[in-house]
Amino acid sequence: MSPRGAADDHDGRSTDQPADRSADRLGRLYDAHATAVLAFVRRYVPDAQTAEDLTQETFLRVWNHLDRLDDTGNPRAYLMTTARGLITDRWRRNHHDTPATADQLEQLPATGDDLDAALTAILVTEALGRLTPEHRSVVQLLFYDGWTVTETATLLAIPAGTVKSRSYYALKALRTALDELGVTR
Prior knowledge:
Layout: E1 7-8, E2 14-15, H1 18-44, H2 48-64, H3 76-95, H4 102-106, H5 112-129, H6 133-144, H7 149-156, H8 160-181
Antiparallel strand pairs: 1-2
């Protein structure tokens, strides 16, 4: 047995094991994209340690699904989508069905306008949660993150026309969800 798991085949040449090729590929992905993924995560997660953990978890998930990556394309979109999913999952875990404490209730806005804005934000978040993941990601990138249609298309690895179509239908679905929730503005 040769170093790094390479085995000698019958004619004396060494061949890499599939696990070694996967590890090498992941290492190259990490070297090329880890800084960008960490910067992306830090935009949403202010805690440095948590952001680093989510970045590591992103690459672990990608390693478990290396077969989904196209060798000819740019894997950054897949990495960012994976990271966004992990960020969303963590946020939901931390905020789902958690009763408000007295301290949190005291921090709610005191004026009617501030309270209306806070309640509207909660309703918009609820409405966004009713969108499909594809529509939600387009809305997030275009309207919250400020990406252009071209940048969004590149990040999601879809054509620009698909981004435009998804944004149209996402906004239509968002209007319907907001109407159902009683948001009239």
